[in-house]
Amino acid sequence: MNNDILKTVCDQKHIQQVCKRLGEEITKDYQGKEPLVVGVLNGAIFFMTDVVRYMDLYLSIDFIDVSSYNGGTQSSGTVKLIKDLDSDVKGRDVIIVEDIIETGRTLNYIKDLLNDRGANSIKMCTLVDKPEARIEPLPVDYVGIDVPNEFLVGYGLDYQGKYRNLPYIGVLKPEVYQTKN
């Protein structure tokens, strides 16, 4: 897998520093509250696990799965709910944890869904933000790192389900995905 990586954008040590910083920020902001932390499957699993370890709060965890990529390298523009939450969000303070924010469509879809269900508050936390790729406006409350508009994999980020288990984030060589699309 490492041979498919053009360059490293964020190494394992830096990722852990980011997780610690974000966990501490969220702890400070949510003192006296018991938030519901919602991970967006499958990519957010690694990041969410590491961030909540740094959150000194009583909290609940749940997962939602939505898709807009269908295995490709660009969003289809249509968000589809694959797996819904098991938790009731009515009256809850919700923190949505995502591995990467690009167009903004996915998180706007989830945010609207949870607002319609009566969440008390909704905040967004992402490891990686690609502001250059944003199509829909989306305020992000907790951002790990801003990255250029390149195709990234590792630490939860994938291409066709592969590369999620890399312990760092890297740019996938274009020849890997250009020859397969």
From TrEMBL:
It catalyses: GMP + diphosphate = guanine + 5-phospho-alpha-D-ribose 1-diphosphate; IMP + diphosphate = hypoxanthine + 5-phospho-alpha-D-ribose 1-diphosphate. Keywords: Cytoplasm, Glycosyltransferase, Magnesium, Metal-binding, Nucleotide-binding, Purine salvage, Transferase. It is an enzyme of class 2 (transferase). One of its GO terms (molecular function) is magnesium ion binding. Pathway: Purine metabolism; GMP biosynthesis via salvage pathway; GMP from guanine: step 1/1; Purine metabolism; IMP biosynthesis via salvage pathway; IMP from hypoxanthine: step 1/1. Its main location: cytoplasm. GO terms for biological process: GMP salvage; guanine salvage; hypoxanthine metabolic process; IMP salvage; purine ribonucleoside salvage. Its EC number is 2.4.2.8. Residues 11-160 form the Phosphoribosyltransferase domain. It comes from the Bacteria. It is found in: Cytoplasm. Belongs to the purine/pyrimidine phosphoribosyltransferase family. This is Hypoxanthine phosphoribosyltransferase.
